[in-house]
């Protein structure tokens, strides 16, 4: 079976050949979809197909998935870094020091990159996975100002990437920040591969990751029936099947609408009594009008079943305790986020009880600044308790979890970075 990706009607830049239920193949499809790169997925179902189409011995061959490129290049079970290198996206920093370093390439980080570089700051953006963050996995964003017909998250992120690059932002993909060293007027970030990024000001826009179900067998089924996020890259593969989505926020609602035209049945599983408190009204109206979308209220997924791939889930009513099983190969989880701030405690940044970065006025307690604040002025609105280090978007305490607000905070953080640079 061959499926053309729905990310673009252009000629595919990558052909991915692999077996169904392959976590490695999903990881590549997801990355390419988020990056707005057209691809073709060729599914192998027999050893004979594996030999004929992928030139490997059998379906369980460790060389799968295979990626083929128009110039004849063949990559066997490639990493995301290898793919970014092949696409010409993997770069090394060109400077020993920057005016502004931005960690995270979601809406807040991209906005900061556009405004920072356009204002003349020597700007670098570091993203550990794909440009766009969680927003890039959204099939359609319909309530963002200026796009009345809606736009896919991947396309919007690609436009922002182009914009930032045109203004001169350096973008380092497939890089993850792992620790930092903070000294007055300078922050050094260390990436997982040992690269050191030195900057006079820094914006943390690392966002959040979807919260896990914390169930037995969860790791085994990741990418093999269990997916975290809206899974927009997988819609074409769910034709005629039963899809389950855990979560009641806008990302879950958009995912339900994206799968509905293809899947036989889409079921949203939510803990609450209704979608009204968590979902935009326009999505609620569409979900209720869709004939093949069901909403299971007061319900949780409590068990996962299957051999190599997910085959069945257990659903439990939170009020009665009643359990029932449902067969499915497609479970998408969109249940809120965990902030990406594992590095922050080592450098003494103030976090709230959930791990979000505390900034600005929230650093005050009973009118008193956070202890050890070294400057005479108060922290700026998006500034952490470390001068010159700002936070923007979902990673920030009490932020509004909306695309537009993240974009706004990215622009605001650059304005405050300018103020800091002007001080000294």
Which structural traits does this protein have?
424 residues, alpha/beta, five-stranded mixed sheet, 9 helices, globular
Would you identify the regions where 5 or more consecutive residues have pLDDT less than 50?
1-8
Head-to-tail CA distance between termini? 61 Å
Structural class: alpha/beta
Determine Rg (CA atoms, Å).
Answer: 22 Å
- Please report the number of helical segments: 9
Mean pLDDT: 93
Kindly estimate the percentage of residues that lie in beta strands according to DSSP. 15-25%
Q: What profile does the largest beta sheet have?
A: 7 strands, mixed
Level of helix content? 10-25%
Q: Looking at the structure, what is the overall shape?
A: globular
Number of distinct beta strands: 22
Structure description:
This protein is of the alpha/beta class and 424 residues long. It has helices at residues 23-34, 47-54, 80-86, 107-118, 153-166, 218-221, 250-259, 281-289, 403-423, and strands spanning 2-4, 14-18, 39-43, 66-68, 74-76, 98-103, 123-126, 170-172, 177-183, 186-191, 196-204, 208-210, 226-228, 242-246, 265-269, 293-296, 299-305, 312-317, 323-327, 330-333, 337-339, 389-391. The strands form five sheets. Strands 6, 7, 8, 9, 10, 11 and 22 form a seven-stranded mixed beta sheet that branches. Helix 4 packs parallel to helix 5, helix 4 (107-118) packs across helix 9 and helix 7 runs parallel beside helix 8 (281-289). The longest helix has 21 residues, at 403-423. It is globular and about 65 Å long.
